[in-house]
Write a structure and sequence with these properties.
Shape: globular
CATH topology of the largest domain: Rossmann fold
CATH class of the largest domain: Alpha Beta
Structural class: alpha/beta
Strand order of the largest sheet: 1-11-8-7-5-6
Number of strands: 11
Distance between the termini: 47 Å
Bound molecules: NADP nicotinamide-adenine-dinucleotide phosphate
Number of helices: 10
Oligomer: single chain
CATH architecture of the largest domain: 3-Layer(aba) Sandwich
Strand content: 15-25%
CATH superfamily of the largest domain: NAD(P)-binding Rossmann-like Domain
Number of domains: 2
Amino acid sequence: MGGQLIDGKALAEELREAFKPRTAALAAKGHRPGLAVILAGEDPASQVYVRNKVNACEAAGIFSLEARYSADVPQETLLAKIAALNADPAIHGILVQLPLPRHMDEKTVLEAISPEKDVDGFHAASLGALVQGHPCFIPCTPHGVMKMLEAHGIDPSGKEAVIIGRSSIVGKPMAALLLNANATVTVCHSKTLDLPAHARRADILVAALGKPRFVTASMVKPGAVVIDVGINRLPPEEGGKLCGDVDFESVREVASLITPVPGGVGPMTITMLLANTIEAAERRAGK
Ligand code: NAP
């Protein structure tokens, strides 16, 4: 039998349908939402992510602009582009695709984005507001996870939530969101001692570490909700497919609800980027 699937693809489609009247209403008033995507370098995965984001914008009625640069582009060029986009009234959201080329300082580049256009939610001002529980653009991946929990009637209040991974784009904002929703939150990382013991206490377990099939059934409490954020490409000798940080087949037997990879968190991430861009345009239009 096994746990029920959380179908991120279906939920993402449902949410994207609901965006259409909002973008149409904005466009009718001359405020068509606009997203600028900046890509530096030729990383193949980043190129796919950017293409997917641009295509999703088109489908949702959001204007998108791509700014592509070679890997050796000077940081100053990127900063000048961001300054121009900050001042451009047709652009409501600015996204810098990560990772940046090594010679750049990620923090400097991300913090050049005006917080009102920080639809990825990576600016220190956005993360600070999130921790303090103030309105802000919420980083898309953890925001998508919260929407999935909500769609399945999972209220984190009073529950034990364990997050594996503490990056600024997933683990830390995920912890803040679950804490703001009154869960009791534990964040595990590479220096955590006896990680399986922490994981086994979780009513809600979020795996975001980037290690294929790391979470096995013996690390999961029976009936837990398991959210797999990981996206890993298996080596060709193992089929070359995408897989998550959770050993899906075995964990499904123990969990009550589980996200698949692909088709789980991934489609929700882009959906929340669209949501943030539309919200930025609505704020500008004075709604
Ligand atoms: P990241 O920046 O590399 O951070 C990984 C985190 O996991 C770090 O905090 C690290 O601990 C921890 N970690 C690594 N190995 C560990 C281990 N063996 N035991 C315990 N903790 C360990 O990764 P990220 O950007 O957060 O991404 C995580 C995964 O999510 C990746 O597979 C990525 O592709 C995926 N992702 C998916 C989406 C989506 O839309 N579905 C979006 C973003 C990311 P330390 O801090 O101690 O080093």
